[in-house]
Amino acid sequence: MDIITIVGVGIIGVSLAVLLKQYKPEYSLAVSLIVGVIIFALVAENLTPVLDQLNLLLDNTQMPREYIEILIKSLGICFITQIACDTCKDAGQSAIASKLEIAGKLSILLLSLPLFQALLSIITTLLAA
């Protein structure tokens, strides 16, 4: 991941957004969204080594695959929700941003229910012994 490229895209995007906000505020929001997508794409293309390392660790610990899938999906929900919330806040819609945060938290809670069930099963087994 070339952080210089990512920072450069961010600085250029902010400069354009601030400049356009004076004359065409609707274009400023579009520039912010486009820059956000570009930065996300630049970061996402470098996730393969991280996922490979997680798979290696998972193979060594012999944990069920569904646990790591839940973790990765939860991280994805966090990132997407954060980007959406920040975009809403930039547009001056903090009420919508807070509702999106609640929706993201509920999505993660629903996604992690199988983990809670497995944990309760282990605790019940340990207490019964």
Please give a structural write-up.
With 129 residues, the protein is an all-alpha fold. It has 6 helices and no strands. It has helices at 3-23, 25-44, 48-61, 65-90, 94-111, 113-128.
Low-confidence regions:
none
By DSSP, the count of extended strands is 0
SS summary, helix count: 6
- Helix/strand class: mainly alpha
Q: SSE order in H/E notation?
A: HHHHHH
Distance from first to last alpha carbon: 50 Å
Q: Compute the CA-based radius of gyration.
A: 20 Å
- How can the largest sheet be summarized? none
- Overall mean confidence score, pLDDT: 87
> What fraction strand?
under 5%
Q: Quick one: overall form? A: elongated
* Helical residue percent band: over 70%
Quickly describe the structure.
The chain has 129 residues and is mostly helical. It has helices spanning 3-23, 25-44, 48-61, 65-90, 94-111, 113-128.
Descriptive labels:
single chain; 129 residues; mainly alpha; 6 helices; 89% helix
Topology:
Elements: H1 3-23, H2 25-44, H3 48-61, H4 65-90, H5 94-111, H6 113-128
